[in-house]
Amino acid sequence: MPTGIFVWYWVSSIFLTILLFRPAKKFILVQRIRKAERTAKRALSEEETSEIERKSIPMTVFIVLSFSLIFNRILMGKYFL
What we know:
Elements: H1 3-40, H2 46-79
């Protein structure tokens, strides 16, 4: 891969990761909270909700970063390489 395309790949992947992080985090958080409430059969406290939110951040980063790297690789492979 030429240097310019290599730099563009990483910059656009990181930018896409930053762009998608917040909506993906909210979506994953809502799904995990609903599942926890169904399992506990009660509303969760603020402490439980904040704990779930804290645990969902690394998973969200992994999912969004993986998606953006694969997405950009497919796009660049199709149009630039």
